[in-house]
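User: Can you predict the 3D structure for this chain?
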Amino acid sequence: MAEGGIAKIDLVLQELGPMGKFQVIQCLVFFLSYLHDAYQFFTYIFIGQAVSHTCAPPNNDSDWIIPELHGTSDNFTTVHYDKCNIIVIKNISDELMISRYPCVYGMKYDGDYYRSFVSEFDLVCEHASLPALSQTVINGGLGLGCIIVPSLSDRFGRKRLLMIAQMFMLSGGILAGLSPTYLVFLLARCITGFSAAGVGLTAVTAGIEVFPSTHRKFASGFGSTLWWSICIMSIVPWAYLLRDYSWRILQLAVCGSFSITILQLVIVNSLTYGALYLMTDILATSLYTGLFLNALVEGASCLLIVVTVDRFGRKKSLAGFHAVTGLSLIISSICFSFQELPALQIVATVFSLLGKFGVSASFNTLFMYTPEIFPTNVSVDVVLMLVMSVQSRYALWAPGALFGTSNLIALILLRFLPETMGKELPQTVEDVKPKNQALKS
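Assistant: Here is the predicted structure, written as structure tokens:
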């Protein structure tokens, strides 16, 4: 609305009751959608686990592809079945002849191969990069959804779009659990990512726009953060109880969250946030403990948000959160580089969790901050979550160094954003122009 005819939305909401039963119930209903989002995204940690493996030996029906393995055994030939090679060592006249062959007889996995899609689809050795591709695909679908969904949300309404997005996410989750090939699995993940944009973007916007500015911190900063962390923690008992079953069972089980329910960020936060969750396996000896600690730390950050965002303002709070995140991750990466010192690995884990605490506070403060900068009809457009899959097993120090530096850069860029504490949500682009002019002056 243009200046002079601006509806005082905050005054109306205050008169109706800033924390009335209607607002609270509506917000809770929208936030229930987080459960489906969290389950579909973070079950990857369990269904995509790396599985120990070696090359399988030939059986009686195998073709004689490697003759040395089928002939009569002798004292001069030694065979080693490595992770990705069959190594044949011959000692002839005190001269060693070493031959390497690929795993032509298939793979042998420790335990049941069906517990992870990595082992079921043989995504190892030369195909070792393909498991991470599934996360890239789901985030690609998410990015595409963030481009398309906003205009649909304003045209058809939040509730209708949320219902449709939930149906598509359910379809994608079921298709992933029943996928006969990895290509079909990737297609299902893309559908899931695209529909997640409709769920996350719609839910967070609709959930907080019913509150006046003085109470948005409780809806977005506290309520949203706490509920999101609870959703992630609730994955752990599911995954633990189904740990001895096929990964397909867990994938299909989490689709049941749709019966309970009827995110997104600017790039630096989503990269750091997603990467720290995907590094769960190096933050604790157990995947279950690691994911639970990550979510627990995130839940604790909601208390910090409530205390800081109105006392110090959005900008200063975000600056502090990014500073804590950046410095903690850099210190963590330095400690991780000294793997021969166990004490430093404990210190690295502590600082990694502290970084998770900081980025969670920043992540969820932005849910409140972004709609206060941009008008309602474009606010959903500017929230984009892009989670990066990090190959941390090769360089434990690299993720912390990269994301720590990114957060320190974000700290500098915050200087160019306006303060929105105590301001009404802008309704049109015209309402945003005075803020931009104030920044330029």
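DSSP finds 19 helices and five strands in the chain. The chain has three domains: 32-51+117-261, 75-108, 266-415.
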